[in-house]
Amino acid sequence: MRRTLQAVPLVLCGLGLLHVSLVTDLYLRYVKEGMRPLLIATGAVLLLLGLASALLDRGANGSDGHGHSGTPGVAWLLLLPALSLLCYAPPALGAYTAARQPAKPVVHQGDFGPLPSASPLPMTLSDFTSRVREDRGQAIKGRVVRMTGFVTPGDGGEWELTRLVLNCCAADARSVKVRVHGGPVPPADTWVTVTGTWHPGGTLGTASAPVALDARTVTKVPRPTNGYQDALPPGESVAR
Amino acid sequence: MGGVVPVPERRPGPGEGNPPGGAADLHAAGLPEASVPQTPAPPPYWPLLLLGAAVLPGAVVFLVGRWGDAPAVQAWRTVCLAVTVQALPFLVLGTALSGAINAFVPESVFRRILPRRPVLAVPVAGVAGVVLPGCECASVPVAGSLISRGVTPAAAFAFLLSAPAVNPVVLTATAIAFPGNPAMVLARLLASLATAVAMGWLWLRFGRVEWLRPVARHTGHRAGHSRWDEFRRGFQHDFLHAGGFLVVGAMAAATFNVTVPGSVLDTFSASPWLSVLFLAALAVLLAVCSEADAFLAASLTGFPAVARLAFMVVGPMVDLKLIALQAGTFGRAFAVRFSAATLVVAVACSALVGGVLR
Question: Which pTM value belongs to this model?
Answer without folding.
Answer: 0.73
